[in-house]
Amino acid sequence: MSRNRTLPIVIVLILTVLAGCQAQKPGVSEAVPKKAYGGTLVYALNTDVLNLAPFLAQDIPSITVCYQIHEGLVRHEGNYKLVGALAQSWEVSPDGRTWRFHLRDKVVWHDMVPFTAQDVKYTYDLLLDAKTMSPLRKQYSFIREVTVPDALTVKFSLQEPHGDFLDKATLGIVAKHHMEKLGDLRKYNTQPLGTGPFKLKEWLEDDKILLEANTSHWLGRPYLDKVTFRIIPDLARRMTALAKGEVHYVWAIPPEEFRKLEAEPRLQLLRHPSLSFAYLALNNRNQLFRDARVREALAWAVDKNAIIRDALHGLAVPAYGPYSPANEYYHNPNTKQFGYSPEQSRRLLDEAGYKPGKDQIRQNVLGKRLEFTVLVRDGDETWKNIVNMCQKWFLDIGVKMGIEYVHWTTLNQMLDERSYEAAMLSFAPGTDPDQYNLWHSSAISSGYNDWCYSNPDVDKLLEQGRKLSDPAGRKVVYFKIQEALASEVAAIWLYHPLVLSAMDRAFEGMASQPMAQDRYLYRVYETSQKPPAK
Questions:
Q1: What CA–CA distance (Å, rounded) separates 67 from 198?
Q2: Tell me: the pLDDT tens digits for 166-210?
Q3: Cα pseudo-dihedral 149, 153, 157, 160, rounded to 10
Q4: Both 44 and 99 in a single domain?
Q5: Same-domain status, 132 and 166
Q6: 154: in domain
Q7: SS3 sequence, 38-59?
Q8: Which parts of the chain have pLDDT scores under 70?
């Protein structure tokens, strides 16, 4: 779960896990047909990398580069499927407290030292050590112990069942012998060592990062000889560099810029669905919003299709809950959906006792007006357009919504303090369907439950869902959660954005799937290169 309250640029994924004692044996479907070897892909990053240690990397540039160099026990593939990486199979005990991973044989580090289970144990022990100061430590605190039965087997003993554990096993593994040789974690950024398809050749701060092919990778060497990450913070400069062929790939392109590229024949445009959701948060502690009929009335008043058409250039899909349709397994398509119906809005407000006043703003018999202020991040024209559209729609049904544009830091502070009436922004859920920190009552005081939603039945379901390992059982639980959130209008969901990118046609290998993008550049090849001799 990543707290990202801007328009999210985060790839979000679905957990697909088999439970019980039966071993899971994902095939090596990631092996790709032989194309051609050679060439250098130039990839534009909007900011420099901060950390190349997997247990410290949190920002998108760091993760993007880090996971070319490192690999986890498992990894995400295609449309959010978890498959084996350094682990070729695994099993979980019936009580969900013990996970055993069987590692691939003959995997070597970039320095040709064999990879073993001791490296896995060392990595997780290091993450859980308070001295490491990993920002991920709390997320892994349910691990009680990591043991090594033999060189190719690692066992995780958990304090309690955790349904998202396999998802967390995507953490990149570091080499025990290399870390001990360095003796100082601060040296790791300039001397990372992994088992991944690329290895670090050069890093010029705030300029570029050069990776070269790992010719001893267990899947076979990547097609590209090199990948160069160019640091270009300015969007206009990134787009100019793409147009001139100075860079070959740009990720997370804004919708208006993406549309401009459609007339450029030398570029292939890629779009893929996101699990992120944009929303209007109504503070449920506010007296105005305690009546579900008022919240529902506002939901019916929002024209999601108009927002997507006019503000997002058609590059999003309507949202009816916090689970995107892209979450193919856990998305419940049968929850209550609110289309655009001002008539329905007015009927609900009449039922709730709010009648139009002299100025047509509705009020109840006590004179309480339907009037509130929404917080919006300043400096973002897309959000400005969307909130202005909503302001007009609400006024049409007799609700007055003021708009306050605030700095990002101030907005986060007000959200953390729950000292607001409404807020419009977006959220990037984590890779697992567990949204405990969004909707559980306890997350009001110590989580991301900004909207102060509280439902004891939903609390129980959230507690149940995160302890299950069986996907079928989890699906039932999360379907029920979605039904409750929709029926109670826990928030007003607006849309799920598409992630947009462009690549020079001199290269192939990217696909319009979330996990066929920046994590796995070993698939990319330059079309001008000659295929290998048979």
A1: 9
A2: 989 999 999 999 999 999 898 999 999 999 999 999 999 999 999
A3: -160
A4: yes
A5: yes
A6: yes
A7: CCEEEEEECCCCCCCCCCCCCC
A8: 1-34, 78-79, 512-518, 530-534
Nearest to 267 by CA among 234, 246, 243: 243
**Residue 273 per-residue DSSP state:** E
CA dihedral 510, 514, 520, 521 (to 10 degrees): 30
pLDDT of residue 23: 37
**pLDDT per residue over 420-435, tens digit each?**
999 999 998 877 899 9
Structure token pair of residue 50:
């901060």
Distance separating alpha carbons of residues 511 and 398, to the nearest angstrom: 46
Task: Determine the structural domain holding residue 92 and report its residue range.
Answer: 40-248+506-526
Handedness of CA 207, 213, 217, 222 (dihedral sign): positive
Nearest by Cα to 83 from 22, 15, 146, 155: 15
Residue 488: name the closest of 284, 246, 251 by CA.
284
What is the spatial distance between Cα 532 and Cα 530, in angstroms, rounded to a whole number? 6
| Numbers of helices and strands, H then E, in the chain | 15, 22
Alpha carbon distance 503, 268 (integer Å): 5
The reply to whether 213 falls in a domain is yes
Residue 20 domain-assigned? no
What CATH number corresponds to the domain at position 414? 3.10.105.10
Angle at 325 between CA 324 and CA 327, to 5 degrees: 70
Is there a contact between 119 and 111 (Cβ–Cβ < 8 Å)?
Answer: no
What is the sign, positive or negative, of the torsion defined by CA atoms of 57, 60, 61, 63? positive
Task: Classify strands 267-273 and 492-504 as parallel, antiparallel or unpaired.
Answer: antiparallel
Contacting residues for 462 by C-beta, under 8 A, at least 6 apart: 434, 435, 436, 439, 440, 481
What DSSP character marks residue 2?
B
Question: 0.85 exceeded by the pTM?
Answer: no
Pairing, β 249-251 against β 371-377: unpaired
Q: 308 and 456 share a domain?
A: yes
Whether residue 78 lies inside any domain: the answer is yes
SS3 448: coil
Would you mind telling me the total number of residues written for the chain in this entry? 534
Residue at 511: amino acid letter: A
Verify that 405 and 432 share a domain, yes or no: yes
Spatial distance between the Cα atoms of 374 and 404, rounded to a whole number of angstroms: 6
